[in-house]
Each structure stands twice: as C-alpha cells, then as structure tokens.
Amino acid sequence: MGMLFKLFTSLAVSLVLMSGAAMARQSVPVVNFENVAITSASGKTPSAEAITQAIKLASAAKGWTIVADAGSALSATLVVRDKHTISVQISTAGDKYSIRYKASVNMNAEERAGQMEIHPNYNKWVKDLNDAIRIEFLKL
Question: How far is CA 139 from CA 3, 26, 117, in A?
C-alpha cells in the first residue's frame, strides 16, 4: 500500500503541475478600436475639451491613469495586481476616437506574421475601457 500511495501522490502532483501550464492562456490578436463614432445624448459632437474630460472620467472609473501624449492624443495605462501593465493611445479626430495598443509588461505580447498578439485579458480590459468611454459620451 505504501508504494501505491507514493505512486498516486506522484501522479497527483504531476497532474497539478501540468494543469498550470495547460491553463496558461493562448495569445490572441490585439483588438484596436479604430474610428469609433462619438455619440452624445444631444446628437451633437461635443467640444474637444468635453471629449477629453469624458475620456479622463471613464478611464479613472476603470482604474486607468491618463497622461497627455503627442498632439491631442492621450496615453492610458492600467496596472493589474502590480503584475501586469498595459498602455494604449487614445486619439480623437472630430466626431471619432480610436484606442490603439501602445505597450505592455508581462502580457506575453509578441508580433506574429505581422499581427500583434497578447494575453486575452488585454482585449477584455480595453473593451471595458471603450465601453466606459462610450457611456461617458452619452452623458454629453
């Protein structure tokens, strides 16, 4: 029985260690939000200042830090559990805005066949940011 117990324990430990590797998520293509229409409650295009303020409010509500980037663009950074960092560039042009991948730390980002790939949580976090921005625009 002692030998059988050791064999079972060894097998169980091996399965646990292998499942960690199996549970690591496959990288997916980075999703950018390009030329998304700015939709306000009034139906009118808000001022550039109101758009910037709405983006800042939405970003802060989702835990993102915003800083001014080149031109009228903004750079938004999210740090998750002091382990993962993602940065996007948010640019506006008239009645449209775009959110594009900028950089990341500890997100398995890699360019493959001309396509940037990353951990799937990146796309979830950026989609949440985009949804929050759209909600803020609807308040204008």
Answer: 68, 37, 34
**What single-letter DSSP state applies at residue 44?**
S
Confidence of residue 2 (pLDDT cuts 50, 70, 90): low
Question: Of the candidates 123, 104, 101, which has an alpha carbon nearest to the alpha carbon of residue 25?
Answer: 123
What CA–CA distance (Å, rounded) separates 103 from 2?
A: 53
Entry pTM: 0.81
The letter for the amino acid at 133 is: I
Q: What CA–CA distance (Å, rounded) separates 83 from 20?
A: 18
* Residue 9: predicted pLDDT: 52
- Residue for token digits 């796309």? 123
Largest CA distance in the chain: 78
HEC assignment per residue over 106-125 = CCCCEEECCEEEECHHHHHH
Strands (E), 22-112: 28-29, 33-37, 65-68, 74-80, 84-93, 96-105, 110-112
Q: Give start and end residues of each alpha helix (H) in 43-119.
A: 48-61
